[in-house]
Amino acid sequence: MIDLVETLATRLNVTPEMIVLIGIALGAIATVFGISQVVFEKDPAAIRIAAGNPARRAARRDRGLLKHDVETTKGILKTLLPATSDERNALKLKLEQAGFHGPRALQIYMLVRVSFGILLPALLLALVVSAKVPGLTLPFDLNERIGTLGNLQIFQGLSILIAAGYYLPALWLRSRLNERQLRISENFPNALDLLQVSVEAGLGFDAAMTRVGNEMVNTAPELAFEFLSVQHQVQAGRPREVALMDMAQRTGVEQVRSFANVVNQTIQFGTPMADALTTYAAEMRKYRELKAQEMANKLPVKMSAVLASLMLPALVLTTIGPVLIRYVRLMAGS
């Protein structure tokens, strides 16, 4: 094996280490490609049926009528999903709140977690085996760093890589979810003001939401997507109340949930929409002002710990330092 690697490296005019790294990379790519082909292999009959009228199918998908059901997942990928339907629905909702609305978002997310949990320790094992091959020199002094590892250290490294590969995507998903909710909550008061102005100008509520969604595509794409999704569902025949509550659930933002409740109650009791939006917009502006004041009031408390940690050592040295110096001189003189 070593002679083959050296011969191939000589013919290609590269180092043997480069040949080993290329082989590891190609093996990882082939593994991921093979898993994806097995998991996502499409049924030929389903392909023929879907190709019957692609325009109609695309229109229905755009209106939000077709939603993927995680219960229908079969094959190898079914073993990667959570066991209970409640866990699957909760994870699917979290993905939607993070901005992943694709029909196979849950399957792809779980496949990524499992792939990272397998490939990272497999890469470490490949490096350990390569480092112990006689005559093979790895770059960056990996032979000395990895080749001298004991069995316990290798086991600890594999455990850490498995845990990191499986749980780091979950942490990234949580971070993306929080960022998306923050952007929606920050841009929602502005969208509400625009919606209020549009309704007062004479537009209907649906037309006003469509106009605001189109106007905020560049400034607030997440919120614009949610507004336009609601209008697509309403145009497709879904009840407005259900579409609004679905938007509140997809975003997970309390302001959006309150907005959906206000609109549903206004439609139910027949009160003027402009008055309801004006009152709610005033409350949202007050809420934003109170939120800013709350953050400003928290700032001195957060700064006090930092200032104390930076100033206290200097203060202690200033007060006790001269005493210590005199004591040391006195002890040295005696």
Structural class: mainly alpha
Strand content: under 5%
* Helix content percent band: over 70%
Main sheet, how many strands, which sense, barrel? Answer: none
Low-confidence stretches: 59-71
- The total of beta strands comes to 0
Q: Please tally the helical runs, counting DSSP H or I stretches of 4 or more residues.
A: 13
Q: Could you give the distance between the termini?
A: 75 Å
Word description of this protein:
The relative contact order is 0.06. Residues 59-71 have low confidence and may be disordered. The protein has helices at residues 2-12, 16-39, 44-50, 54-62, 85-97, 105-131, 142-147, 151-200, 205-215, 221-235, 240-251, 254-269, 273-333. With 334 residues, it is an all-alpha fold.
Draw up the topology in text.
Elements: H1 2-12, H2 16-39, H3 44-50, H4 54-62, H5 85-97, H6 105-131, H7 142-147, H8 151-200, H9 205-215, H10 221-235, H11 240-251, H12 254-269, H13 273-333
